[in-house]
Automatic annotation (TrEMBL):
Gene Ontology cellular component annotations, sorted alphabetically: endosome membrane; Golgi membrane; late endosome
Protein's name according to its UniProt entry: Mannose 6-phosphate receptor domain-containing protein
InterPro entries from the UniProt entry: Man-6-P_rcpt, Man6P_isomerase_rcpt-bd_dom_sf, MRH_dom
Residue spans crossing the bilayer: 212-232, 253-273
Stretches the record annotates as Disordered: 42-65
Main location group: membrane
């Protein structure tokens, strides 16, 4: 019996946290990654711009997605991290309308919107470099369009974006993104700087929270007390039944005290409950019976307290 109890306890303590912790680390939350070289944990979710909540205005300076000046490219870029841009796209060139809400980076030129990548929430590490890429944007300008007699190639290339993320160690520094280069109007390189690209320790890696550790210690202490106390009362003091529980008299006294306090509180609260008035008027006949019982409780309590004072 005791063996079964012990093995079930061991089972309880071992299953929920310790074994799943290892599995969880493999399936990370979206937009998070652990560096393979330094074991630091990176969470880019805080720099993902979200549309303002219904009826609320976005925080000053945080309206819309992130912007990067195009300089000599002749267009400015609008980009979000790990999610689609906040702005609603209305006329994207060479991209199925189903994907317009998935576009994570785009630019506008001559009144047309060009997507340069669809959302991707899986950053990767290339050595020590944190990289996020978006693929599947608008079609790249194809060479075959210059020689229109050639059939368009089957695997048309789509605009792609690669963002290299750098750690901005000044915690007051703002996140920023700047345009580095575009190759053949097809592949776009950016450099992002952010305090969130510096990594940190992952809060969730600990299998048990400090509170959980404390709880386990308390549980073990209570078990040792109960089992050790039982063994002592049984073998040394030769007690049987409930009396073999350790410090039976003390616990029984505490139990009685708690019961009495409960009775006092409930009976005095019941007296002040306004809703009781209507009820008691209807059940006037029972009033005496109820009062009698309450008096009984109070008398018993006073007797108990007297007993305890005598002890
Ligand atoms: C890009 O943005 C800058 C200001 O941020 C503006 O002066 C410039 O005209 C924009 N360029 C294009 C092509 O829209
Ligand atoms: C596009 O977004 C929808 C939800 O907004 C999502 O269910 C779908 O998987 C996304 N598609 C791609 C290719 O990311
Ligand atoms: C783009 O990111 C995916 C994961 O999100 C990765 O598998 C792929 O190698 C990356 N491609 C490039 C060109 O960086």
């Amino acid at each position: 019996m005791k063996l079964a109890f012990f093995s079930s306890l061991v089972f309880l303590l071992s299953t929920p946290d310790f074994s799943t912790a290892a599995e969880e680390s493999k399936s990370l939350k979206p937009c998070t990654i652990r560096s393979p070289t330094t074991d630091r944990f990176f969470n880019l979710n805080p720099i993902r711009r979200e549309p303002p909540e219904e009826g609320k205005k976005a925080k000053e300076g945080e309206e819309g997605s992130w912007h990067a000046k195009g300089h000599d490219y002749g267009a400015n870029f609008t980009i979000n991290f790990c999610g689609p841009v906040v702005e609603e796209l209305t006329h994207v060139v060479d991209l199925s309308k189903d994907y317009w809400k998935n576009v994570s980076a785009f630019y506008e030129r001559d009144g047309e919107q060009y997507a340069i990548g669809l959302e991707n929430s899986e950053p990767v590490f290339r050595g020590r470099k944190l990289v996020l890429n978006y693929t599947g944007g608008s079609l790249c300008p194809s060479k075959s369009s210059l020689h229109s007699h050639e059939a368009p190639s089957e695997d048309e290339r789509r605009k792609t974006t690669v963002i290299s993320l750098l750690c901005e160690s000044d915690p007051l520094a703002k996140t920023s993104i700047s345009f580095v280069a575009a190759v053949d109007d097809c592949v776009y390189f950016f450099e992002g700087r952010s305090p969130f690209a510096c990594g940190g320790v992952e809060a969730e890696t600990q299998a048990l929270s400090p509170g959980g550790v404390f709880g386990v210690i308390v549980l073990i202490a209570v078990l040792v007390y109960l089992i050790g106390g039982c063994v002592y009362q049984r073998t040394v003091m030769h007690q049987r039944g409930w009396r073999q529980l350790p410090n039976y008299a003390m616990w029984a006294g505490i139990g009685r005290f708690v019961m009495d306090m409960f009775i006092i509180l409930t009976s005095s609260c019941a007296r002040f409950l306004p809703s009781r008035r209507g009820y008691s008027r209807v059940s006037l006949g029972h009033e005496n019976g109820r009062r009698g019982r309450r008096n009984d409780d109070e008398n018993r309590l006073i007797d108990n307290l007297d007993e305890e004072w005598d002890d």
